[in-house]
Design goal:
By secondary structure, this protein is mainly alpha-helical. The protein has one domain. Helix content is about 35%, strand content about 5%. It has three helices and four strands. The strands form two sheets. Strands 1-2 form a two-stranded antiparallel ribbon. A two-stranded antiparallel ribbon has the order 3-4. A hairpin with a 6-residue loop joins strand 1 and strand 2. The longest helix has about 55 residues. The protein is elongated and about 120 Å long.
């Protein structure tokens, strides 16, 4: 009686059968490591995991400050845009007052009394309609509110106390420092 050994036991490739390449077989040389007696697809070693986590940590440590800088730069751009929008509206109001298209009391600077006057609008002289300067007061991205610091035409340029006579300028109430080293409230 002759004993034949299975091709899997001697490490030979299996004989060609019809349907072998069609996936109807269960033979996979990578599944069994005969010498070690364990699966060759057992996963990552501890060293590989530690090295991978170390590399991932280094990449995260580099990317996080960059991401924070990008967010800060976006807030700065939004602050500049908001300041420009309000200041343009204030300048337009003053221009119309100087051209006598808006009635101004004697002794007034020609700037609006409040920011709400820019929202509500003013009647133009001669009955030619009403002019609005802002649809809404823009939000300060640093304080996340519409509560701006105000300066009057009669206030000192670096004053943080509003005189209340009119609104000549606006600034953020944030005490933080910009990326360029200046204070946001000085913008």
């Amino acid at each position: 009686m002759q004993i034949t050994k299975s091709p899997l036991e001697v490490g030979e490739s299996p004989p060609f059968k019809a349907g072998f390449f069609s996936g109807s077989h269960n033979y996979s040389p990578a599944r069994t490591d005969v010498k070690a007696g364990r699966s060759a697809e057992s996963g990552f070693t501890l060293i590989e995991l530690v090295v991978s986590l170390t590399i991932l940590s280094i990449l995260a440590a580099v990317a996080l400050p960059y991401a924070e800088t990008v967010v800060r730069r976006q807030k700065e751009m939004e602050l500049r845009r908001s300041l420009r929008e309000v200041r343009t509206a204030l300048d337009e109001y003053k221009r119309l007052a100087d051209e006598k298209k808006i009635s101004v009391e004697v002794g007034d600077s020609g700037y609006p009394k409040t920011l709400e006057a820019l929202l509500a609008g003013v009647d133009l002289v001669g009955g030619s309609g009403k002019r609005r300067f802002l649809r809404r007061v823009p939000k300060d991205p640093l304080t996340n509110s519409t509560d701006w610091g105000l300066r009057s035409y009669f206030d000192d340029p670096d004053s943080t106390m509003w005189g209340g006579e009119d609104v000549f300028d606006v600034y953020t109430k944030s005490e933080k420092t910009a990326l360029d080293g200046t204070k946001y409230k000085d913008w």
